[in-house]
Amino acid sequence: MRAEVSNEDKLDDLEEPIGRENIMKKKDKKIDPIPDEFASYEEAGEFWDTHDTTDYPEAFVDVDFDVKLQGRRFEIDIDEEVMELLKKEAKRTHLRPGKLASQLLKKELTMMQG
Asked: Which of 18, 38, 86, 113 could crosslink 43 through cysteines, CB 3.0-4.6 Å?
């Protein structure tokens, strides 16, 4: 099922409405050039923390890619003590804690089913 959302509904959700005044502010906004190089990842991070990528559409290219989803993941709450035991056993068995937890739950639930 697909819910229809009007453009008016989308505009109501924005913090600042898109109006003539805000478009003019964006046009008048001074946009710093992107440096040719950054000295470090930290410097690049600082630049992009204070700049909006939508101000630099020419710096980005559209890409196509395929994604093969390998399965769904779920989040569950477990006690800290259980997590510590799980991490210890996962390290011993060379498994990721999530993979080990899934295997243990599957084994236990299968046994409970009879």
From this structure: 38
